[in-house]
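Quick one: structure for this chain?
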Amino acid sequence: MNPADIRKMTLPELKKELLVLFRTQFGLKMQHATQQLTNPNQLKRIRKDIARIKTIMTEKKADI
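Got it. Here's what it folds into:
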């Protein structure tokens, strides 16, 4: 995800997106464990997206 797009989101939208990413990450981890994951770079991308969203959520909470 693009950080500029993430910054435009509100806190409830960010929480919802974070839940979606956690579910996606869980699914990818299960695929990786059963050796069905075709693109291992997806895990890295999802982890970075989660970190971006958490960072921006912290910034937004500090602004309030």
